[in-house]
Amino acid sequence: MDILLDSFISAILLLKSLDAELYAIVFVSLKVASSSTFVASFIGIPTGFAIAFKEFPGKRTVITILNTLLALPTVVVGLFVYTFISRRGIFGPLDLLYTQKAIIVGQVILIIPIVTTFTIAAISQIDDRYRKTAMTLGATTLQTAVVIFREGRFGIMAAVIASFGRVIAEVGISMMLGGNAKGFTRTMTTAMALEYDKGEFILAVALGVILLTISFTVNLFFNYLQGRARV
Amino acid sequence: MDILLDSFISAILLLKSLDAELYAIVFVSLKVASSSTFVASFIGIPTGFAIAFKEFPGKRTVITILNTLLALPTVVVGLFVYTFISRRGIFGPLDLLYTQKAIIVGQVILIIPIVTTFTIAAISQIDDRYRKTAMTLGATTLQTAVVIFREGRFGIMAAVIASFGRVIAEVGISMMLGGNAKGFTRTMTTAMALEYDKGEFILAVALGVILLTISFTVNLFFNYLQGRARV
Amino acid sequence: GADKVITMSTTTSTQASGLLDLLLPEFTKDTGIQVKVFAKGTGAAMRDGMDGNVDLIFVHAKAREEMFISEGYGTKRYAVMHNDFVILGPPNDPAGIKGMKGAAAALKKIANAKAMFISRGDDSGTHTKEQALWVATGLPLVCKTTNIVKKGKKRELVFSHPKGLGEWYISIGQGMGKTITFADEKRGYTLSDRGTYLKYKVGRKYGLDLEVVCEDDELLNNPYSVIPVNPAKYPHVKFDLADRFARWLVSPRGQALIANYKLLGQQLFCPDAIPDAK
Amino acid sequence: MLFGIKNLTKVYGGRKVLDIPELSLEKGKVYGLLGPNGSGKTTLLEILSFLLPPTTGEIVYDSRKVDFSETFLRGLRTEVVMVEQQPILFTTSVYKNVEFGLKVRKKPKEYRKKIIHEVLDLVGMRGFAEASAHRLSSGETQRVAIARALACSPKVIMFDEPTSNVDIENQIAIEGILRDINVQKGISVILATHNRIQATKLSDSIIFLFNGKPASSIYENIFSGSVRRDGDGNTYCLIHDKVRLVVRTDKTGYVKISVNPKMIKVFPAQDIPSGDHGFVGRVIQLTDEGGDVRALVDIGIPISVLLGKEEYKQAPILTGERVALVCPPESIEVM
Amino acid sequence: MLFGIKNLTKVYGGRKVLDIPELSLEKGKVYGLLGPNGSGKTTLLEILSFLLPPTTGEIVYDSRKVDFSETFLRGLRTEVVMVEQQPILFTTSVYKNVEFGLKVRKKPKEYRKKIIHEVLDLVGMRGFAEASAHRLSSGETQRVAIARALACSPKVIMFDEPTSNVDIENQIAIEGILRDINVQKGISVILATHNRIQATKLSDSIIFLFNGKPASSIYENIFSGSVRRDGDGNTYCLIHDKVRLVVRTDKTGYVKISVNPKMIKVFPAQDIPSGDHGFVGRVIQLTDEGGDVRALVDIGIPISVLLGKEEYKQAPILTGERVALVCPPESIEVM
Ligand SMILES: Nc1ncnc2c1ncn2[C@@H]1O[C@H](COP(=O)(O)OP(=O)(O)OP(=O)(O)O)[C@@H](O)[C@H]1O
Ligand SMILES: Nc1ncnc2c1ncn2[C@@H]1O[C@H](COP(=O)(O)OP(=O)(O)OP(=O)(O)O)[C@@H](O)[C@H]1O
Ligand SMILES: [Mg+2]
Ligand SMILES: [Mg+2]
To answer: Rounded to the nearest 5 degrees, what angle is found at the Cα of E310, between the Cα atoms of E306 and E312?
Structure first.
């Protein structure tokens, strides 16, 4: 049991050691995860809006497909992206494989379904009178969307938070498309996987503790944003 | 590019071959994932309700912690559970490690935050008049909760679907706690990871295609349930 | 500069053993060339080479390496080093093979006793070796073929193992460390490379109960080599730098570093190019 | 012409909830829209404010034929604003709610501030500018919603029962505002209401909806009852198990009837004529309607009688007084 | 005694929206609750139906002291049902909505069916039993909500403006129901409304709320205006920039005043007395109030005057007629 206690202490020691390598890893993790979350939100939230609002044939099928894609395994995403950006793939010459960009591409694909489905769920629960009211007051489609976004921001924020959590904790795609190259594409999770492979369980969990601490900080920030948005 | 096409055809071949081994893997995956989803929903949905409804000091902190736990890495969960159920752990004598039960325990821990946070998000967006109306009509706390569940079922269903997707696509915990033992704890994702490690990318993606097909079927079923629930 | 960076895919054992952490900084110091390492399963590492994603590979699967070269993916196989495999078993040794020299005979005894054996089952170098040992036992093997389509053509994948899969023979398809852990937890036998075993046995706060029950057989040798990817196949690869790394590894400097790498006081790898390097 | 409507229908799940063969509304007028619950008032207002596309039909607005494409509609919506029956305020302050339409119209900040204070004053909600909108009482909410619409200074405003939850003082104020924006700014108003007095007081013209159709018949004195036949072969309608009205109809069972208030005759109570059509009741209310007088008489059910100016002057009746009424069969329409 | 209230307050964000030192309500009666928007009617009803805990204070219900613990309250809630001002229906059929309270009370299926049809009949919604509740019009929704509460046959029903969106015919019906359940079944009723006529007609007793406090003063003729002083040292209140009422007050600026309708005197138009307190206006409505007569006179603002039975009989006034009013300063209260 004391592996947990040991890990805590190790985590503190690691942090206190001001180890440059550790900070690089943390930095890469945060950079990649926030980029992915940002890009996915940028695509997924408007898509979710469009699907929630428009009535079109096959709408339920589209939602079912999105729900299915919530079960997209990282291996599939990883290999899918791999086929395009590997040297033999059509984007091979761009030399994207084993870069942070590659991880971001993969992670974006992974979480777009999450952002989109939960945006849809959040938006569909919003009283339709908000839409009608904004429109009758002369709002454009975009302005109406902003109103609805404001009203549904807790749900949408939850979607974004979940997506961020998913990618910062994700290991498969980072490993396959990033390659866990020290100093370049090593993230907290790939480092954890490595330590685990090495049998350094305590170090693996210590890194996990650090990851959760960072995620907690990020969430405190989100929380602060939500608090402000409450008016 | 043609790896994708190859994988599709291979997936069909695999399915057509009526391979007993494949079916065993699919069966284990479905059994484990649905058990985890069920148990996690059973715990997470009521917890979400309680948090959404009760006003208590530290409520926002609890929500922030839950949001943080959305970033729980599978390695951490895996090792955490491992320390308890390994032969040296306090539950060692139960001989749980490398069984499907162990995977379920880990996965439940992984997705409880998902079910709970999204239940909270779904419930808080529901018009408070539903609660008041149910109560004034004489409903008990439980009956009131049922009313609100009905009104928020789309959001809650989305949470359950996302959790199911998360666990059926999850590989880290299944690998660490299940051990990927052929015929016992090999799931679709651990099999995929194995094929990937072997460099058999086509087979890995083919398994992924099968996984998505199954997930699609499950979602069609969910969709049917939702459709029925619409009255 | 950015040009002086090469990429290498390798099996997890070279990285997990800590050897690369020793070698690479020295190499960079000597030549100014940086090496980016991607550690993964042997199969996946070789795939990287075949797809031209890396400049060289560092693996241990001799037969497949030779095929890699004969198919034109690699230029030359530099034999760098070897370590050896050991058969591990629980202290009570239910199959009674402790002290046996013959690896094949030991496995046969395990099979006959139906004592639990944990196989990596992941087509790794270790798994390949294990399969070769089973062939050497002369026991009847079961082959299982899976049809897939590659480049539009049907192809068969073969997986062979002794009878008793799922009864006493457990195939777990995972890395070495996990396989050792599994065997330790389930009190079974397994085949492992010595380096990983040592790390797990004495390198950690909670060691293993597993013990070496069979070692020092010729059959248990485990040779590692590096192969630069063929620039004729992939013109973009940095062949010159990659080849320089390969040659550095088999140079006296590289070989001496390998010979002197000790983990927990034990030598892990024996240099092969210059066996008596110091 | 403000609105020209042809063959407008709205169908929900196979049911035609709106069916208007022809209707035209003039600019600069106040229209009252009356009709029982479910007659399609809200549906019509939403269609006319371009929030809901009709199932079929043609609408001409301000001599432009309306095609229900989003881009086209958006332009029209800046001219037509609707105040919903149960308005919802955005989850922010009252001030920002009212500001919304002005921001959308790109009005400068100072101007916005001025207008917001003006309209909040009008509805008596000045003190609530900084209050958070979701915490208001129903009447307060309704008044803020009206202010929010007024702030847009559109060409047309639709009010869907704007005073249903408003207190008496503010009902008067809002009725005043309604008249003022029409008279002073020339804004056209369409007002749906159940308050007939309000409708007659404010509107230039009244449209009756019944089952989704404009009703020529007067939407007044509507009662549900069942048609029966007595031993003497008379057909009558029994209302609330209390009042028997002789009717001429072939229908049986449960029906709705309307009694034309102009065709009911009033006599002193002692002069009750013989026959089946007479009732005795108490006058409960007398209302001036542009000279004519509407009397509400309780004969078991409250029935409304319209007396001509002269008729009333010659034989005034007093509240509290008992009178006799006669509803001739031709005053009763079975719907 | 049905409810005994002591020192009840409800505070929202530092503001006391309800503040009732003492109030007791009898069993089996109908109480009318009147008050301007935001005066706390809904808040009081929610507290009395145990949906909202008060900030401070003591409530005794049916001789049981109410402690606001969930288990205790649940028992009470089966006896007290509230119909919200803007009721919400569960997302299911109308039938199931009405069934809810019965199911919760574990009534057998056949009984439920009977009751549901009965109450839907009462509110004229029988035809909608299978309709999906969220698609109803506002008035239909309100009527179903009333039926849903009636189905529970509780001991007390709170109605929060039950007819605000209901059409005239059903307003009458619902008023009838309200009286019937009180008289026939002895159900106590508390009714919040802005419709003063409805309140006087239905209630045994009327409670006025003003700013959260029970107001002794009559909640009528309430106007907002500003207090000014003219050259002659007279203090007057200018209402809607139209009407000047002489008042006695030290306050200045924006105030609310109420004019006691009993203290206003009516004269024929030509007899207008000299002085500053007289106005001439038109009688727009006369309403019978249990013998007394309420006259609504438009003097620029509509003002309500209460005439005693005898007074009216001796000098009846007619609608449409011009009359002179005198509002002595003592009839005016500045709030
Ligand atoms: N989305 C919908 N689906 C199905 N039926 C609907 C829908 N919306 C409205 N209806 C039906 O259409 C009819 C007209 O509704 P509408 O709201 O226009 O009535 P209304 O005249 O405004 O009534 P009220 O006086 O109660 O406000 C009602 O019977 C209602 O049940
Ligand atoms: N949750 C809340 N937070 C803050 N203020 C509130 C809240 N609920 C109500 N109020 C305020 O309390 C006051 C009383 O509200 P209440 O709804 O009881 O009034 P009401 O008499 O029912 O008014 P109406 O006639 O408009 O329905 C209002 O001024 C309102 O703004
Ligand atoms: Mg309506
Ligand atoms: Mg209220």
So the answer is: 50
In tens, the pLDDT along C173-228 reads 888 888 898 898 889 999 998 888 888 887 776 778 899 999 988 889 889 999 99
Instruction: Locate B100 and state its tokens.
Output: 């499907």
Residues of E in contact with D170 (CB under 8 A): 36-37
All residues at 6 or more sequence positions from E320 whose CB lies less than 8 Å from its CB, including other chains:
D288, D291, D293, D309, D312, E282, E283
For residue E161, give every residue at least 6 positions away whose Cβ sits within 8 Å of its Cβ, in sequence order, or none: D138, D164, D165, E85, E192, E193, E194
- E159 and E15 assigned to the same domain: yes
- Length of chain E in residues, anyone? 335
Residues E42 and E138 in one domain: yes
Residues of A (212-231) whose Cβ lies below 8 Å from D: 231
Which CATH superfamily hosts domain A21-184? MetI-like (1.10.3720.10)
Report the pLDDT value the prediction gives residue E273, as an integer from 0 to 100.
64
Based on the domain organization, do E259 and E163 belong to the same domain? no
Would you call A181 and C177 a contact, using CB atoms and an 8 Å cutoff?
no
Please write the tens of the pLDDT for every residue from C60-116: 888 889 999 999 999 999 999 998 899 999 999 999 999 888 999 999 999 999 999
Residue B231 has pLDDT above 50, yes or no: no
* Of the residues E184, E215, E246, the one at which a domain ends: E215
Domain boundary among E190, E215, E240: E215
For B13-27, C144-158, D121-135, which range has the lowest pLDDT when averaged over its residues? C144-158
* Ligand 1 atom 6: residue of nearest CA: E135
- Is residue D23 domain-shared with residue D144, that is, in the same domain? yes
In which domain, by residue range, is D238 found? 222-334
Categorize the per-residue pLDDT at E257 as very low, low, confident or very high, splitting at 50, 70 and 90.
confident
pLDDT on residue E68: 81
Mutate to test the interface with B, among C47, C128, C172 (most CBs of B within 10 A): C172
Chains contacting E (3+ CB pairs below 8 angstroms)? B, D
Answer yes or no: do E270 and E295 share one domain.
Answer: yes
Distance (Å, rounded) from C-alpha D284 to C-alpha D300?
12
* Distance, CA of B116 to CA of C204 (rounded, Å): 37
Report chain B's mean pLDDT, rounded to a whole number. Answer: 89
Atom of ligand 1 nearest to the CA of E128: 31
Residue type at A225?
A: L
Buried b (16+ CB within 10 A) or exposed e, D164-187: bbbbbbbbbbbbbbbeebbeeeeb
- E263 and E161 in one domain? no
- Domain map (residue ranges) of chain B: 21-184
Same domain as D43, residue D58: yes
CATH code for the domain of D36:
3.40.50.300
Distance CA B208, CA E161 (A): 60
Does B137 sit within 8 Å of E104, measured CB to CB?
yes
Q: Which residues of B touch C (CB under 8 A)?
A: 2, 5-6, 9-10, 13-14, 17, 19, 21, 86-88, 97-98, 175-176, 179-184, 186, 190-191, 193-194, 196-203, 206
| CATH number of D285's domain | 2.40.50.100
pLDDT, average across residues D217-241: 78
pLDDT in the model for residue C229: 94
Q: What is chain E's mean pLDDT, rounded?
A: 88
The pLDDT tens digits of the residues spanning B66-104 come to: 999 999 999 889 988 988 888 778 888 888 888 999 999
Q: Which atom of ligand 2 is nearest to the CA of E46?
A: 18
Could you give the number of structural domains in chain E? 2
Q: Which two tokens stand for residue C253?
A: 């400097």
Answer whether A149 touches D (CB < 8 Å): no
pLDDT at residue B22 tops 90: no
- Has residue E275 got a pLDDT over 70? no
Q: Are residues E230 and E291 in the same domain?
A: yes
Ligand having the closest approach to the CA of D40: 1
Q: Work out whether strand E64-65 and strand E322-326 pair parallel, antiparallel, or are unpaired.
A: unpaired
